[in-house]
Design a protein that fits this description.
This protein is of the alpha/beta class. It has nine helices and five strands; from the N terminus they run ααββαβααββαααα. A hairpin with an 8-residue loop joins strand 1 and strand 2.
Length: 226
Amino acid sequence: MILKTWLLEGLRLNVSNMYDYEERLFKEGYSLIGGCDEAGRGPLAGPVFAACVILDRNQKIEGLNDSKQLTEKKRNQLYDEIIKKAKSYGIAFVSEQVIDQINIYQASRLAMMNAIKEMAFTPDFVLTDAMPLPDIEAPFLSIIKGDTLSASIAAASILAKVSRDRYMEKLSLDFPEYGFEKHKGYPTKQHVDAIHSHGILPIHRKTYDPIKSMLKKQMAFDFEKE
């Protein structure tokens, strides 16, 4: 949905605290403001997660910020507080197979839209972290570095990040030699070394390097053998 220009420009003013976007929208008559963000664009393995959160205007949560800027302990504390105090939230993920089929950008967008569908209340306005959502019914605003500027987006980034981290920690029980509980699928030296030593797993993203290059080399080798 297209926003009126005056509202769009007004919302892009500099903010002085994490609740400025939400407060401006409350004054414009919106009451269910959802913040959306994703976690897991960069990893070589596992799904991308997304969350959407409608915060309670009367229960401010202190310490909200981009999940990547918080310690694991602080993220977990805020996760519990967000779950407890939010008016509504939804969490969803898109698998590594779908990521390979439609690309990570489209998969991240799909995860956000699915997260909105999981909510008990549908937002009447959506704020996103640099991700346009033209297919949703509500008006939206895509904010660059939104997880550092909007409390709702920051809350969503925390739910998405913690949910994905916990998912990868469970996967580490099935594949202990890969160390997913430590790097969560990101391309660390430990992870890349494990791939070279133990091979590519079904949960690895086949369109990501170095996995993509390894598969090409294997295909070339198999072709030469024939």
